[in-house]
Specification:
heterodimer, A: alpha/beta, Rossmann fold, 3-stranded antiparallel sheet, about 25% strand, B: ABC transporter involved in vitamin B12 uptake, BtuC
């Protein structure tokens, strides 16, 4: 049974649908890249999947023992965070809030999980540093560790490499791939079709026409031929 | 110096000075707690707007002739806080514009009412007192002291219990919401705490100077400290100590309480700004 089934989904805001009749599914362990031009509805789709927006029509169903709100999320950086006084540990721990009953404070299990995920992201030595003083790549690792505290099952990444330099971009993609190899389902929004094809195993291409399928089929499709040929000539 | 100390010792025996110190410290404590959240959520202006609303509500209460003005002022301010934070987050009607509209209207209507239905012979002095706090902190009744104590204890307790959630909602509301934190409830809690703090703080510094009490300690602390916890603790300590020193100074020097405290906050801010610059902390 798929972890996530999207059936005949229409989404957008009150004054009009951006996308309609969208259907796809995501199985445990998949690496899905969502690509498409600006304004094609990538971010709207992500917000809808996260439950921040209500779909206009259609349904999103969770299977394979995945509960709603069990989706980890790597957002794009917000302006507020740029000068937020918070230590790395405080940020990572805040991912633990989603779990079950209300406890006012973090317990030992939460702290252990935060420590484990910081180690996994290679940021243990940064744990007392201030989030706002870190480099872009380090900040993304902190937010990934936080997302992993919220769930081990499925991560939604919104443009995870935007603003990073080429070397850090490569490291970030490798890190995401490594998580995927460890069994975490990945859904990644990206501008970078070349990287999407290299790392992901499924592609959802949004635009006037919608493509959903495996990377192999995508490469053979008219989208793939058009976009990948263009990438190569650049 | 010795003269000042003995003078202080005499003043400290008066109940009104003791009340002022107790209530002043509690108000300073509460008002600094949410400062960080308000500054970071870009809500600094909401405190200002709400204090004008509280002023309007207070003049209505005075005109109606209520003995316990809290009964009107607190609920009205809470309702406005909830409405303003709502528009702030959804940004449908520009948040800052709606704050401006509500606050100037409340200010104008309040002053109008006090002039049309004067309750005392010297309206200007009354208005000035409400706006700048002048001496109301030194004229507290036993009942007002108790109300302040109870509200402060509740505010601090709520803040401590929800501390981690408030952090999460401030740092990244979307993430918190997506992972199942009931962000609407915590935004509501934040709004209610702000309203309570503002109504309490009117006694101390008057409605025009409240935002200083809320914003200054947080801004000062953010210059130097780097984690949310240390910033929160530091701004609380700063706020309480400036309030304490400010009240004592104003008793000794016969200056108005509110402006004395706020001037102190400003000096502290400048000092911390310099410390931060010297330490090379990234600018906030």
């Amino acid at each position: 049974m798929p972890q996530l089934t999207i059936k005949d989904l229409s989404l957008g805001y009150e004054n009009g649908a951006i996308l309609s009749h969208l259907s796809f599914e995501v199985n445990a362990g998949d690496y899905l890249a969502i690509v498409g031009e600006n304004g094609s509805g990538k971010s709207t789709l992500m917000k809808t999947l996260l439950g921040l927006l209500k779909p206009l029509a259609g349904e999103i169903s969770f299977g394979d023992s995945l509960r709603k709100n069990e989706i980890g999320y790597l957002p794009q950086q917000t302006l507020v965070q740029r000068d937020f006084p918070a230590s790395v540990t405080e940020v990572v721990l805040s991912g633990c809030l989603s779990n079950g009953a209300f406890h006012p404070f973090y317990n030992k299990a939460d702290k252990a999980r935060a420590a484990a995920n910081m180690a996994r992201m290679g940021i243990t030595e940064l744990k007392d540093r201030s989030y706002r003083e870190l480099s872009g790549g380090q900040q993304q690792r902190v937010l990934l560790a936080r997302a992993l505290c919220a769930t081990e099952k499925i991560l939604l990444l919104d443009e995870p490499v935007s603003g990073l330099d080429p070397k850090v971009t490569m490291e970030m993609y490798d890190l995401i791939k490594q998580l995927n190899d460890e069994g975490v389902t990945i859904i990644m929004i990206s501008h970078d079709i070349a990287a999407a094809v290299r790392y992901a195993d499924h592609i959802l291409h949004l635009g006037e026409k919608i493509f959903f399928g495996t990377v192999e089929d995508y490469k053979k499709s008219e989208f793939g031929e058009f976009f990948l040929a263009k990438e190569e000539t650049v | 110096m010795i003269l000042g100390a003995s003078k202080l010792a005499i003043y400290l025996q008066y109940p009104f000075v003791q009340y002022a110190l107790i209530v002043g410290v509690l108000i300073a404590l509460c008002s600094s707690l949410l400062g960080v959240t308000l500054v970071l959520k870009r809500f600094s202006f909401i405190g200002d707007g709400l204090s004008h609303v509280a002023f309007g509500a207070m003049s209505v209460a005075a005109v109606v002739g209520l003995t316990n003005q809290m009964l009107i002022v607190l609920p009205v301010t809470i309702v406005c806080a909830v409405l303003l934070l709502r528009t702030g987050s959804k940004a449908r009607l520009q948040g800052d514009a709606s704050v401006a509209i509500i606050s100037v209207t409340a200010l104008a209507v309040g002053y109008l009412l006090m002039n049309v239905f004067p309750t005392s012979s010297n309206v200007s002095a009354d208005v000035c007192g409400t706006l700048f706090g002048s001496s109301s902190i030194l004229n507290l009744s036993m009942a007002e002291v108790w109300v302040s104590i109870v509200l402060s204890v509740v505010t601090v307790a709520v803040f401590v219990v929800f501390y981690n959630r408030i952090f999460a909602v401030t740092f990244d509301e979307n993430f918190a919401k997506a992972t199942g934190v009931k962000t609407d409830i915590y935004n509501l809690i934040i709004a209610v705490i702000i309203a309570v703090v503002i109504v309490l703080a009117m006694n101390l510094v008057g409605s025009l100077l409240i935002s200083a009490l809320v914003i200054f300690p947080a801004l000062s602390a953010m210059r130097v400290f780097k984690s949310f916890l240390s910033v929160t603790v530091c701004s609380t300590v700063l706020s309480v100590s400036t309030a304490l020193i400010g009240i004592l100074a104003s008793v000794l020097l016969s200056t108005p309480v509110g402006p004395t405290i706020v001037a102190g906050e400003a000096i502290v801010f400048i000092a911390f700004w310099i410390i931060g610059a010297v330490k090379g902390v990234k600018k906030a």
